[in-house]
Amino acid sequence: MKTKNIEAYTDESYPPFPTKGTLFWRRFIPWQIIRFFVLNLKIMKIVVGGHS
User: Fold this and answer.
1) Cβ atoms of 13 and 5 closer than 8 Å
2) What single DSSP character describes residue 11?
3) Does the global pTM surpass 0.70?
């Protein structure tokens, strides 16, 4: 029987590391608060639209 040649994962197999800018916006609390309210408004729009 033939043996299979097993190779390790290449760097392309892994997701990219976030940039410094991406990490900043993920950790910036005022931005997170704004995004929280925007998301809640979108959800409420869907919920209210479904109940009318």
Assistant:
1) no
2) G
3) no
